[in-house]
Every structure is written in structure tokens, then in C-alpha cells.
Specification:
Blueprint lengths: L5 E12 L2 E13 L4 E5 L6 H8 L8 E10 L2 E2 L5 H7 L4 E4 L3 H4 L6 H12 L4 H14 L5 H4 L9 H13 L5 E5 L7 H18 L2 E6 L2 H5 L4 E6 L2 E7 H6 L4 H8 L40 H5 L5 E4 L2 E3 L3 E2 L4 E2 L1
Parallel strand pairs: 3-8, 3-9, 6-7, 7-8
Antiparallel strand pairs: 1-2, 1-4, 4-5, 9-10, 10-12, 11-12, 13-14
Helix pairs in contact: 4-5, 5-7, 7-8
């Protein structure tokens, strides 16, 4: 098995709030190989973004705190690095594209200045070199007349163009890993498709490793090789993409796939919905966090939390029930 480029072990993150401690991430472990595209899927509040922000040490402290775990990048633990060491990793070797480009870009700095800053900081480029590279990056992500746009401000760009700028910025230092946190959520469907195609093209050209965070399983099918499904701060299913769609093995994954609209649905049946609400994690679950919403629930689910167990060569699930046969595993 190839050595993992990024290896997360037992990650736990908590937030102190006036109502109590929120257990946002509860012992998450996974790895990613070089050149792989991994999708992290789940509804809002399941811990997917917090997991990645924890790895890059971008959790605001207070109120947030990583309380346990390791995040090994090329064998070194990102969580124990000094501020100076992690600063050289962020942007230069592991880059992140955030959900809303309007809040990620500085509204009072030109696009050119924001693109040139990491090039000068991490790669030591002079003004001329950074300008040329910034133009090259904008052209790479499909922005025409790039030279003229360097003097523009973020508000002069459309949502799709701003997201392209964020991707250009993330790619500026040729990082090994690109983390994309729901980068298409605020965009219309046509622009979403363009951004996904852009990332796929850049991945193939540059050989990058990608972690794509999303709540949309539809995007995952054509983009990723492997999927993590998260719920209540836990990974509840891990599988290769084709296997996940062919053989979803957690009731929550079944619900996510069932809620996707299908073009071959001649009956025009109603979309499936998962009843109930996500858990409020003021206490760390000691039973299955999905039990209150699960139609396969049994007594054991209320008493203990299932661990992630192997059910196939590249397939793991945290569930006591074999949903295919409706019986205990």
C-alpha cells in the first residue's frame, strides 16, 4: 500500500459555547494518498469543514480547540508544529478554497495584490515575477484579459469569477494538497459544472491531491475516487465511489443517495427525505448518533456507538444492521 500523504488519526475538536461544549469532531481517522481525490460528504453541522480546518489549525481559539489526535503530513504532525512551521505549510503545500469567495477575498485589495502576496511570501518572487505568475494563474482558471483584471476589486467580479480567483490563489504555490470546502454552493448549476470541470482539468494537469467537501453526492460521482460520509462528528461510511453508489451500507448514506433527483425516474415519485434533525452535540454520543432518525434502529443502537468496520476490500461502515438484508451484521 502506498504511503499516505496525509494521515489523520483520532481527531477530536470541541467548541465552548454559552450553552455548553459542542463535540464537533469525535475521533475521525482517515488517510489520503498522493494524486487521489477524496470527497467528504454530509449535511451541515456533521463536522466535515471543522475536520479540515482543524488539520490546518484554522479553528478560532477560543472558542474552538483540537483536544486529541494527530494530523501527519509527510510524517510530521501538523497539530504540534509551531505557528511559524504551519504558516509555511498552509498555502504553500496544503491550500484551501473556502465556501464563500466574497468573505474570503479582501474587499479593499485588488485581485492582483491578493494573488501576488503568497507568491512573494512563500516563493520569494519579486514584483515583476509575481505579476507575470498572477496573470498566468488567472488564465489557467479561465479568466480572459487577465492582465486588465489584476487591478479590479472583488466586487467587480461575478460569483463564478471570484471562485476562480480563489482557486487560482490556492494553486499559486503549486500545493501538494488542495482542500475545497463546498466551493460551488453559492453558484448556479451551470457555473458549478464549470468549476468542477476546471478542478478536474487542473488535477489531471498538475497531479494534485484533492479533498472535496460537499453535501451534494451528485457532484461526487464524477469527481472523486473515494468518499467519506460523515454524521454527528463521526465517519460512518468510507468507500470507493462506484462501490458506494452500487452498495450503500449505512441508512444515512441510503437516505443521501435516495434524495438525489433521477432523470430515469418515469414514475415522477417524490424525492426521499430523511426525517428528523441532525444531533445537537452538547454531549459526546455514547449510542449511534443516527438512531433517532433511522428506520432500521434496534435496541443495541441506543446502547452503544458502532465503530467503523470493514465489509469489503475498500469499504467500511459504522452500523449494526445489514441494510441490504435488514438483519444484524
Amino acid at each position: 500500500m502506498p504511503e499516505l500523504l496525509l494521515d489523520i488519526q483520532g481527531l477530536e475538536t470541541q467548541f465552548k459555547t454559552p450553552d455548553g461544549i459542542v463535540h464537533a469532531v469525535n475521533g475521525v481517522s482517515f488517510g489520503i494518498k498522493e494524486g487521489e481525490t477524496l470527497a467528504v460528504v454530509g449535511e451541515s453541522g456533521c463536522g466535515k469543514s471543522v475536520t479540515m480546518l482543524s488539520v490546518l489549525r484554522l479553528i478560532p481559539s477560543p472558542p474552538g480547540k483540537v483536544t486529541a489526535g494527530k494530523a501527519l503530513y509527510q510524517g510530521k504532525d501538523l497539530l504540534t508544529m509551531s505557528d511559524e512551521e504551519i504558516r509555511h505549510i498552509r498555502g504553500a503545500q496544503i491550500a484551501m478554497v473556502f465556501q464563500d469567495p466574497m468573505t474570503s477575498l479582501n474587499p479593499v485589495m485588488t485581485i492582483g495584490k491578493q494573488l501576488m502576496e503568497p507568491l512573494q511570501l512563500h516563493l520569494g518572487m519579486d514584483n515583476n515575477q509575481a505579476t507575470n505568475r498572477a496573470i498566468e494563474l488567472l488564465e489557467m482558471v479561465g479568466i480572459s484579459e487577465a492582465k486588465q483584471h489584476l487591478k479590479d476589486y472583488p466586487h467587480q467580479f461575478s460569483g463564478g469569477m471570484r471562485q476562480r480567483v480563489m482557486i487560482a490563489m490556492a494553486l499559486s504555490c503549486n500545493p501538494q494538497i488542495l482542500i475545497a470546502d463546498e466551493p460551488t454552493t453559492a453558484l448556479d448549476v451551470t457555473i458549478q459544472a464549470q468549476i468542477v470541470e476546471l478542478v478536474k482539468r487542473l488535477r489531471n494537469e498538475l497531479g494534485m491531491t484533492i479533498i472535496w467537501i460537499t453535501h451534494d453526492l451528485g457532484i461526487v460521482a464524477g469527481l472523486a475516487q473515494r468518499v467519506l460520509v460523515m454524521y454527528g462528528g463521526y465517519i460512518i461510511e468510507e468507500s470507493e465511489v462506484k462501490e458506494l453508489f452500487a452498495n450503500p451500507s449505512h441508512p444515512y448514506t441510503l437516505g443521501l443517495i435516495g434524495s438525489l433527483p433521477r432523470i430515469d425516474d418515469n414514475d415522477r415519485s417524490r424525492l426521499f427525505s430523511i426525517e428528523g434533525m441532525p444531533p445537537v452535540l452538547y454531549t459526546k454520543p455514547n449510542a449511534c448518533p443516527f438512531a433517532p432518525r433511522c428506520k432500521y434502529v434496534m435496541d443495541r443502537c441506543w446502547k452503544e456507538n458502532p465503530t467503523l468496520e470493514k465489509i469489503g476490500p475498500e469499504h467500511k461502515v459504522a452500523c449494526f444492521v445489514d441494510v441490504k438484508n435488514g438483519r444484524n451484521r
